[in-house]
Amino acid sequence: MKKMLEFKAHDGEIEDIALGPDNKVVTAGRDFQCCVWQQDQLVTGLRWHENLPGIPDKAYRYQACRDSGTFLGLGTVTGSVAIHIAFSLQRLYYVKEAHGIVVTDVAFVPESQPGQDLLGGHEAALLSVAVDSRCKLHLLPTRRSLPVWLLLLLCAGLIVATILLLQLAFPGFL
Fold first, then answer.
1. What DSSP line would sit under 7-47, residue for residue?
2. What pLDDT score was predicted for residue 83?
3. For residues 35 and 37, what is the distance between their CA atoms, to the nearest angstrom?
4. pTM across the whole model
5. Segment (H or E) for 151
6. Transmembrane stretches, by residue range (predicted)?
7. Is 120 exposed, middle or buried (0-12, 13-18, 19+ CB in 10 A)?
8. pLDDT of residue 9
9. From edge to edge, which strands make up the β-sheet containing 24-29?
10. What does the buried/exposed string (b/e) look like for 136-156 if buried means 16 or more CB atoms within 10 Å of the residue's CB?
């Protein structure tokens, strides 16, 4: 084996590391941060005081991380579990104290046929394991979105309604 790259990712120990798509690396450190790296460049990161205002920075720490390509699953030393969008780190799912104590590992259910049976129409499923000797399945509900054709139809309707209102307010406008 040959070392390809070395850089300082965290102040203190790294709790967990996960390889993601497009040569990205996710790290969870004892410095209360979770970071997404591209080579040695920080792409984006999470800190508790920014992500969850009102929760003291030193009370929580990211312990475990996994990146499915679409989502980033995180576990904490306080037993909390979260799912974020991998590229923006927008939080989609959070359960405070899902476990009684430290989450030691998280893993996404594979997208194979047996995995699809567990998903049951949900967008993602994350397994979490903790020191409390429990394994829990967290299901991320499918996000609702409007079809593009409906959005275009609504925009066209707004334009027509605006023109009609302007015509009523200012006769001879057109």
1. ----SS-EEEEEE-GGGEEEEEETTSEEEEEETTEEEEEEE
2. 92
3. 6
4. 0.72
5. helix 148-169
6. 146-170
7. exposed
8. 92
9. 14-19, 24-29, 33-38, 41-47
10. bebbbeeeeeeeeeeeeeeee
Largest CA distance in the chain: 79
Instruction: Round to whole Å and give the CA distance between 17 and 118.
Output: 26
The model's confidence at residue 98, banded by pLDDT at 50, 70 and 90, is: very high
Q: Examine the pLDDT at 172 and tell me if it is beyond 80.
A: no
Give me the residue label for tokens 């040569």. Answer: 23
Contact 95, 138 (CB under 8 A): yes
pLDDT at 50: 61
Return the beta strands (E) in the chain as ranges. Answer: 14-19, 24-29, 33-38, 41-47, 62-67, 71-76, 81-85, 91-95, 103-108, 124-130, 135-140
Residues in the chain: 174
Q: What is the pLDDT of residue 127?
A: 92
